[in-house]
Design goal:
Blueprint: H1 9-15, H2 47-53, E1 59-64, E2 70-77, E3 82-86, H3 89-98, E4 104-114, E5 117-125, E6 142-145, H4 159-168
Antiparallel strand pairs: 1-2, 1-4, 2-3, 3-6, 4-5, 5-6
């Protein structure tokens, strides 16, 4: 089933509240994650679903929509959106290159690959707050937003991030 719908087995289990993926049985009715697929093949999933799929300390691959550059991140934490850290020094280098060699709060559309799913997201590129990876050369984390996610400080949905998420899914946004 996971292969047929291009979904990771763990994602399939999580969406169906199954603790152990090996407990999925033939004939069992299952929900398939990713109902919000756009024309570009990138999922538009609400933050509440992504939060269930993207565990703390798990790794995702981000593709910057504008440059095509890819780098890996590890989820550090986050209740309102995902706080993520570049996984290695090389991933930090790619992130910095995406932002023209400097850190920035500018929002950018990204495609987030988690367990075989491609999900529309938005990042900023400024290190801040806490961190858990000590040898990547990055002093903090960045914010990774998804459909309907909120900012830490105001607990409000950020229109700029939401527009970048729509762009990552292939929609024209003014």
């Amino acid at each position: 089933i996971a292969r047929r719908f291009s979904v990771g087995i763990n994602a399939l289990a999580r969406v169906n509240n199954i603790k152990d993926p090996s407990l999925i049985q033939p004939g069992q009715e299952l929900s398939i994650p990713g109902r919000g697929q756009s024309k570009s093949g990138v999922e538009l999933l609400p933050w509440s679903e992504v939060d269930e799929l993207f565990d703390n300390f798990s790794v995702a691959v981000l593709t910057d929509v504008q440059t095509g550059s890819k780098f890996r991140v590890r989820r550090y934490y986050g209740h309102y959106h995902a706080d993520v850290e570049p996984l290695t020094k090389q991933d930090v280098t790619v992130l910095r290159e995406i932002y023209g060699g400097r850190w920035s709060w500018e929002r950018r559309p990204v495609i987030v690959e988690i367990e075989g799913m491609r999900i529309a997201g938005s990042i900023n590129g400024n290190p801040h707050g806490g961190a858990s990876i000590r040898d990547n050369g990055f002093p903090g984390h960045i914010c990774l937003h998804f459909l309907g996610s909120q900012l830490h400080n105001s607990h409000k949905v950020d229109k700029q991030h939401q527009n970048k998420i729509l762009q990552a899914a292939g929609y024209q946004v003014e």
